[in-house]
Amino acid sequence: MAMPTAINNDRLKKRFQKWDVNGNGTVEKADFHAEAERIIEAFGEDASSPQARALVDAYLAMFDFFASKVGVAASGAITEEQFLSVFEAAVHAEGDAGFNRVVRPTVAAMVGLCDTDGDGELNPSEFRRWLEAIGVDASSATESFHAIDTSGNGKLTVAEVVNAVRAYLFGTMDVPLLGH
Fold first, then answer.
1. Confidence class of residue 180 from pLDDT cuts 50, 70 and 90?
2. By CB count within 10 A, which of 3, 107, 167, 172 is most buried?
3. Helix and strand element counts for the chain (H, E)
């Protein structure tokens, strides 16, 4: 899939603000960790399960990637401007490879956590729980599910979800898979 020409900065700013739980204008590693824990708790998952650990690891690796790109120590803080700049440079400008390197591991870990029946894909019920866990109004979950299910098989693969996250961030799909 070719990358659209422009990131929807309003959506990225909302994503940043959601991570900035304390509203101090920066995100720290603890913010990413807290979001992963909140999602794990929303699923009622044991924090020590392999799925929960994978989600925490993916979130922390994403923060480490952003921090390294802006020259901030792992214990440092990233401003909204730095986040937008890194996302533009490392995710958008590098096309699918950059997006997949940064975002796909977190999406795959999220699918792993949400996939309560263990088939490697999300069914409509699991997808609804994902939306609820990330703080998205799930009232349109069925419609959103069908928009993402490009194969039409009634299941969402990691690739379909990654493509939907990409489309959401680039403003070509209105299914908010990152929360807002």
1. very low
2. 107
3. 9, 2
